[in-house]
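Obj: model holo form, ligand = FE(8)-S(7) cluster.
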Amino acid sequence: MELSVLGQSDAEQHGAGGCSSGSCGSSDDQLAHLPEHIRAKVHNHPCYSEEAHHYFARMHVAVAPACNIQCHYCNRKYDCANESRPGVVSEVLDPLQAVKKVKAVAATIPQMTVLGIAGPGDPLANPERTFETFRMLSEQAPDIKLCVSTNGLALPDCVDELAKHNIDHVTITINCVDPEVGAKIYPWIYWNNQRIRGKKAAKILIERQQKGLEMLVARGILVKVNSVLIPGVNDEHLKEVSRIVKAKGAFLHNVMPLIAEAEHGTFYGVMGQRSPEPEELQDLQDACAGDMNMMRHCRQCRADAVGLLGEDRGDEFTLDKIEAMDIDYAAAMVKRAAIHAAIKEELDDKAAKKARLAGLAVPRLEATQSKAPRPVLMAVATSGGGLVNQHYGHATEFLVYEASASGVRFIGHRKVDQYCVGNDSCGEKESALAGSIRALKGCEAVLCSKIGYEPWGLLEEAGIQPNGEHAMEPIEEAVLAVYQEMLQAGRLAPDEAPLRANA
Ligand code: CLF
Ligand code: SF4
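Output (holo structure tokens):
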């Protein structure tokens, strides 16, 4: 359930059974309709539950260097672009090193609930290393959920092994269901000891992905589908992908923007293939949402990422640092269980409070407006916990929410360079500030715990109202409160088009 503004049920507002925001499947309230055994699988998985990603962390171990296909958006020197932003993996680990690292992170960051293998190549093209890591972890750290991400080519051969290790979450990157489209994305695959090219290669890959998806669903394993949005190549086509994978039982669809920079040395980067604008991504996610539960909080993490989504604490857990750690995993498990129980209590309280507030919000707005006010995008600076709790200048990303007549919904995030780095020197600071304001294009307010005079003035000039009055409040309540203030100030005339370009 969302925070409702007008009091009509969100499902009624959108005419979609139970999916009010188009992002159902991504917040715990929206998971309420799921059977208990599915909820148990997703409630503390930061990628499968939007609510969980404010509280729980994931980590990846880079044990899988090889790949069995080539994607035009990938350069082997960089992380797998399916699951990571470009950037070299600092260390490829062997399974023993990986297990040691996982236990060190679990003891240090009790909120880490999920271990994923997502590269830097394809985990299932490295089956011995991948499954040896999973086997040891399921024995030695049974409280950690195991997760894997694959391009799907080897998937049908690995489903039994995945089931054997109790791997409940599998991500398949499916960028197309049509070999014509696929041939523009994949120059070749390596299958049955042969390099196969063009449409024939794409056809095999697509068939293997679809077969793997069906086999996983038949086993009761949750499948998330990732798709890379490549403007002019598969943008329109992804609606069909979404429809088909949903029909086959995928749980969640994650449409991610292509990252294509010439300096990464990828085919698309070098050829000047453009990446989508935030609005294009949002429009496509909204278009797919009618058919599919959409994930909108993906951070395209590195294949060796550690921490909450959007943060990377990998530097704290390099092999030499882990060697120096004294890890008592039995003691860590006790601490982890206590912290997980405390988070669950907090989430339950939050859900109850949200339900109460939804009722309260109605009369205040109904009294001031007979027609639905226009939607507004707002950016939020947060360092986790679902709160407005970060200084504007410390933010490296902003979460973007849409407040509208039907409530508050999460739209996505915008990455920025941290501008307040304690160095007054310069041009660099100014350009980081200008860049952060540009990144908030389309937003009409930014909520943070504090903000300096300089960015305040520049944001106002750009048509973005800074707001520090809701520090430490839960994000959705704060966004709703600001929306109500704007409404009462007469700034949300229903016939005014939503503001999409103000910077
Ligand atoms: Fe890792 Fe992927 Fe598992 Fe998550 S990431 S293997 S499902 S634990 Fe998550 Fe990162 Fe997006 Fe992947 S935010 S890139 S969706
Ligand atoms: Fe790169 Fe991943 Fe594609 Fe393999 S599947 S080429 S590692 S993006």
